[in-house]
Specification:
The longest helix has 15 residues. This protein has 2 domains: 124 residues, NAD(P)-binding Rossmann-like Domain (Rossmann fold); 160 residues, 2-Layer Sandwich (Dihydrodipicolinate Reductase, domain 2), CATH 3.30.360.10. Helix 4 links the parallel strand 3 and strand 4. It starts with a strand and ends in a 16-residue tail after the last helix. The chain is of the alpha/beta class and 342 residues long. The chain is globular. Strands 8-9-7-10-13-12-11 form a 7-stranded mixed β-sheet. It has a 6-stranded parallel β-sheet with strand order 2-1-3-4-6-5. Bound molecules: NADPH dihydro-nicotinamide-adenine-dinucleotide phosphate (NDP) and N-acetyl-L-glutamyl 5-phosphate. NADPH dihydro-nicotinamide-adenine-dinucleotide phosphate binds next to helix 1 and helix 11.
């Protein structure tokens, strides 16, 4: 039995991790932290877990976590990096759901996250946890940087085109929408239902911290830098990300849809839909799945639509998928279920 701890168990991704881990046959949750709710029974905060877990929230301490085989950090950016070196030294492996270990360049991290990196020496070792492209390295990793939610949807939707060299890497547009849970479980005026409901807006048009993460991913597969215009939007729903991706085709002899179909044919958590499809976020609600549709318009523009649940394939589900790989478990263990909506 694998013993795991969750730092940040009261947040949206931490509680989603708990939901998924409690359905995993090979895992025991040994520690769940919250500073604000320390001492409270986890099931008193989350009645949906009643009868499934007898733990109470504890403070995040090295002593409390170092006995675990694996610790998930579901905490704000800049939190994990302060504890990870000590946990690794104690022999505990780590999956960070935040951005601390995603960017390889510490200067870029400091620029986008507004603070110096606490352990830049670990950035090279950290493995970017997108299994569809990094499976073997994840298996051997001590430290996995779980991808961001927008980067997951966009990267899965663009890499097959870049790998095959069939689009212009200098002109790519990612028009992406997220549900409100993407912003985390914090009290903020702009996230109130009366502010978000019946409204729809773009944000981060001057530059969003996920743009460098996505471009880092795409550059690896294009084998050169790419030029990406990325605009996130907030939509009045709780869960889900929908990305509409535009690129110019440079080769008429390759069928984009066929590239995706063959690239993801063996992937348990990517579904390439038939031509002419328009995937909906509700079709992936609550499951670890990215659904993709690939269509073309006259003039040589390929339009890829990619949908995920930001809390599952965009965070906790992908973290579980990475855990399965790191510990030699069946990659799909604890992750096979049907979406909440038809
Ligand atoms: N929401 C989403 O869709 C996605 C989020 N992420 C990333 O995952 C991480 C968690 O996100 P989310 O669940 O939304 O966040 P929330 O704001 O919902 O929860 C944050 C959690 O972290 C704990 N926490 C906060 N500060 C600290 C600290 N200094 N030390 C230890 N624990 C702390 C909080 O509990 P307490 O303060 O009581 O200790 C709380 O449990 C973030 O980095 C986010 O960017 C990634 C992909 C998708
Ligand atoms: C809707 C919303 O606010 N989304 C968040 C991104 C989601 C997230 O949690 O960011 P990471 O994946 O990097 O951790 C934002 O734009 O800041």
């Amino acid at each position: 039995m694998l013993h795991v701890g969750i730092v940040g168990g009261t947040g949206y991704t931490g509680s989603e991790l708990l939901r998924l881990l409690l359905g995993h046959p090979g895992v025991a949750v040994s520690a769940v932290t919250s500073r604000a709710e320390r001492g409270m029974a986890v099931c008193d905060l989350f009645p949906s877990l009643r009868g499934r877990l007898s733990l109470s929230f504890v403070e995040p301490t090295l002593e409390g976590l170092a006995g675990c085989d694996l610790v998930f950090f579901a905490t704000p950016n800049g939190t994990a990096m302060k504890m990870v070196p000590d946990l690794l030294a104690a022999g505990t492996r780590v999956i960070d759901l935040a951005a601390d270990f995603r960017l390889k360049d510490p200067a870029s991290w400091e620029r986008w996250y507004g603070q110096p990196h606490a352990c830049p020496e670990l950035l090279d070792e950290a493995v970017y946890g997108l299994p569809e492209f990094n499976r073997d390295r994840i298996r051997a990793a001590r430290l996995v940087a779980n991808p961001g939610c927008y980067p997951t949807a966009v990267t899965l939707g663009l890499v097959p085109l870049l790998e095959a060299g069939v689009i212009d890497p200098d002109w790519i547009v990612a028009d992406v929408k997220s549900g409100v849970s993407g912003a985390g479980r914090k009290a903020e005026l702009g996230l109130l239902m009366a502010e978000v409901g019946e409204s729809f807006k773009a944000y981060g048009t001057g530059g969003h911290r996920h743009a460098p993460e996505i471009m880092q991913n795409l550059a690896l597969f294009a084998d050169r830098s790419v030029n990406l215009t990325f605009v996130p939007h907030l939509v009045p729903m709780v869960r889900g990300i929908q990305a509409t991706l535009y690129a110019r085709l440079t080769r008429a002899d390759r069928q984009p849809h066929a590239l995706f179909a063959s690239r993801y044919a063996q992937e348990p958590f990517v579904d390439v839909m038939p031509r002419g499809s328009h995937p909906e976020t509700r079709s992936v609600r609550g499951v670890n799945l990215c659904r993709i549709a690939v269509n073309e318009q006259p003039g040589g523009v390929v339009i890829v639509q990619s949908v995920i649940d930001n809390l599952v394939k965009g965070a906790a589900g992908q973290a579980l998928q990475n855990m399965n790989l790191m510990f030699g478990l069946d990659e799909t263990a604890g992750l096979i279920s049907l979406p909440l909506s038809p």
